[in-house]
Design a protein that fits this description.
- Helices cover 50% and strands 11% of the residues.
- With 165 residues, it is mostly helical.
């Protein structure tokens, strides 16, 4: 089965074997609570300024930046809003010859960056951001991290040359 067929099936199939199906690439994912929940709340407070700074730097590229506990080994991930297209659907729509660009802009503009507060890269970025808030190096690292996670999530970069430079 192709990815587009898989995605269509998931969109059409809302329940299986008595359990609700949800896309893990959407922002609405809810994980069961556990004893790590208190630590998660502390991390949200600790990394609040980093999230705000990343949102400010990434500006229109992301709708919001948050701490989330879905990540284990990655520093961050990109998810789409509940109604937005996944990376695969975005690729399919971009490939359409007679696409409607107004719809493209609306559906593509809903990316959320979720960061893993337990990852060494994020911890280092937090320390550097607090030490030198307006540093070009910190801004460049944030953009590089975001663009890298876009690529690994299946999205395309608008300007790949800038990324490679």
């Amino acid at each position: 089965m192709t990815e587009s067929t898989d995605e269509y099936c998931v969109q059409q199939l809302k329940e299986f074997d008595g359990k609700s199906l949800v896309s893990i690439t959407k922002e609405s994912l809810e994980l069961p609570e556990d004893k790590e929940e208190k630590k998660m709340e502390e991390n949200k407070a600790k990394f609040e300024n980093l999230c705000k700074l990343m949102k400010k730097i990434l500006d229109k590229e992301v709708e919001k930046v948050t701490i989330f506990n879905r990540l284990v080994s990655s520093p961050c991930c990109t998810v789409t809003s509940t109604c937005g297209w996944t990376a695969n659907m975005e690729q399919i729509m971009k490939a359409q010859a007679l696409r409607d660009n107004s719809t493209m802009d609306y559906m593509m503009a809903k990316k959320h960056l979720e960061i893993n507060s337990n990852h060494p890269i994020v911890e280092m970025l937090q320390q550097k951001a607090e030490a030198v808030r307006n540093s070009k190096a910190v801004k460049d690292l944030m953009v590089l991290l975001f663009e890298t996670v876009l690529l690994s999530s299946g999205f395309f970069l608008e300007d790949p040359q800038t990324h490679s430079d």
